Recover the amino acids of this structure.
């Protein structure tokens, strides 16, 4: 079957760095997306990885290892506004995004 | 830039009435749009895939006669919740794919919060 595994909740301090891990199992693979979702709002696109390696985009970076079925989202210089849920969503062979429950990130001052 | 819009953002309706939600792609054409539902503190649940000019493909357990989807053009898809009941109260979100930098990126609309009284 298809499966996403992320920590349910993480806590970090403002200004620090946090890494949110994601392991996945899908029927085929066409890349992996990370989205940010604030409470009561729709998800917003953060990153897309289709090849192995690290993609850096400002304070956010995303890493992918296809052979390990593993990705992580790295957030640097954390700000209070980064408090949100972070959704790891791989795309399967039918180009469908597979959704898990996401990781709720709590930022403390 | 490419954006997905949704209207209305919030709607309150009485039980038994129908509600239409519009999803539009701005600055790009979307042959395929997706409709999701999300209950509080739960993950996104795909309801259906909307294809321009053809019938929508519904996920298992989603009543196609209750959730009517029409993808009339390359920039517009609508979801109509017919004979709404309180249990249909939820956050409905549409998404569409656009090619950005050679990659197909899924963009989400801002969502519509439906409350059925």
């Amino acid at each position: 079957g298809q499966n996403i595994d992320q920590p349910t909740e993480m806590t970090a301090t403002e200004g620090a760095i946090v890494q949110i891990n994601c392991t996945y199992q899908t029927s085929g693979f066409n890349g992996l997306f990370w989205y940010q979702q604030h409470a009561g709002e729709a998800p917003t696109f953060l990153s897309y990885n289709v090849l192995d390696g690290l993609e850096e985009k400002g304070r956010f970076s995303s890493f992918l290892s296809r052979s390990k079925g593993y990705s992580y989202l790295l957030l640097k210089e954390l700000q209070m506004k980064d408090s949100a849920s972070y959704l790891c969503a791989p795309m399967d062979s039918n180009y469908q995004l597979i959704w898990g429950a996401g990781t709720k990130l709590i930022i403390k001052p | 830039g490419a954006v997905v819009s949704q209207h209305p953002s919030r709607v309150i309706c009485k039980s038994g009435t129908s509600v239409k939600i519009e999803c539009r792609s701005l600055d790009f054409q979307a042959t395929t749009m997706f409709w999701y539902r999300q209950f509080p503190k739960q993950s996104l649940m795909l309801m259906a895939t909307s294809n321009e000019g053809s019938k929508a493909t519904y996920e298992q357990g989603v009543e196609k006669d209750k959730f009517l989807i029409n993808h009339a053009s390359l920039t517009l898809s609508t979801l109509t919740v017919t004979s709404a009941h309180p249990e249909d109260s939820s956050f409905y979100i549409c998404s569409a794919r656009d090619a950005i930098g050679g990659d197909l990126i899924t963009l989400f609309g801002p969502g519509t919060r439906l409350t059925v009284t």
